[in-house]
Structures are given as structure tokens and as C-alpha cells.
Design a protein that fits this description.
The protein has about 160 residues and is mostly helical. It is built from 7 helices and 2 strands; from the N terminus they run ααααααββα. β1 and β2 form a beta hairpin. α1 crosses α4 and α2 crosses α3.
């Protein structure tokens, strides 16, 4: 039985670039292969390379879900004090603006009358997204547990 060798650093670099670009030729060129078309196609034919690509995709998706959850938490529970401070500042300079936390702000307008209008992201929608994600996670864990203990799916 032939076993496939582990990946070299350059092959791992190819996998990483491929996950980011989705283009095997471009990934092979970035990884330093002289004939990217030939080497990229050959690399994708190897099971170890495909396993590494799948692992990297799964890790990236997990990170995106965690980042999205953190963003929704920040929208739902974030502080609006800096946005209120901005409303009462006549002429903020660039340094002042750079130090403000305006993550919860969806839109800022200054109509012709000179007043400042600030529109915030919807906290209720952010909470709903968090609840939806929690329910989906709970459902997946429950399905996994039922599969482990051999119980059939419940009808909800």
C-alpha cells in the first residue's frame, strides 16, 4: 500500500493561496512554482493537498462565523456614547473622528440646515441573528448527539 507523503511548506503555501483565490494557477504562481498551470493541476490531483484545502476552508468558515457572531454582539450590546458625543461636537477634526467607536452607526448625514443625523444599526435584528445562530448551533449539537446514541431524528 502506497502512502502519500506529508506536504512541503511550498505545497502548504499553495493550499493557503488556493483557499483565498480559488484559482489553482494563481495559487501555484504565488507559491513559487515555475510552471503554475502544470503544477497547480497536479497538486489538486493529490488527496493530501485536497485534505489540507478542505481543512483550511473549514477553519476559515469557522473563523467567519465567530467574527460574524462577535459583530452581531457588538451591534446588539455596543456602546453609543461616541456617536452621541459626535452629535454635540461642532467641528470634529480627523484625529477626534479616528478615536471614536462608531461601529453601531449605519449612516451619518448633515442636511442643509446643519444638524447632524445619525442612524444606528437595528439592535433587535442583531439580537435575532444571534438567537438564530444559537438555535442552529443547538440543533446541530442535538442532531449529533442523537446520531451518537442511535436515536432517530425528532419531528419538530
Amino acid at each position: 500500500m502506497k502512502t502519500e507523503r506529508s506536504l512541503t511548506p511550498r505545497e502548504k503555501k499553495f493550499c493557503s493561496y488556493y483557499v483565498n483565490s480559488g484559482n489553482f494557477k494563481e495559487a501555484a504562481a504565488f507559491a513559487g512554482y515555475h510552471d503554475p498551470d502544470k503544477h497547480g493541476a497536479a497538486l489538486l490531483a493529490r488527496s493530501a493537498v485536497n485534505q489540507e484545502i478542505e481543512r483550511l476552508f473549514a477553519e476559515r468558515n469557522k473563523n467567519y462565523r465567530q467574527q460574524a457572531r462577535a459583530g452581531y454582539q457588538r451591534l446588539a450590546f455596543g456602546n453609543v456614547a461616541d456617536a452621541v458625543r459626535l452629535m454635540f461636537t461642532d467641528n470634529p477634526d480627523e484625529q477626534d473622528l479616528g478615536s471614536l467607536d462608531l461601529f453601531n452607526v449605519a449612516e451619518i448625514k448633515r442636511p442643509k440646515d446643519g444638524a447632524l443625523e445619525i442612524k444606528f444599526f437595528d439592535r433587535i435584528k442583531a439580537l435575532e441573528k444571534l438567537e438564530s445562530a444559537d438555535q442552529q448551533e443547538h440543533s446541530q449539537v442535538s442532531d449529533f448527539y442523537r446520531a451518537l446514541v442511535g436515536q432517530p431524528d425528532s419531528e419538530n
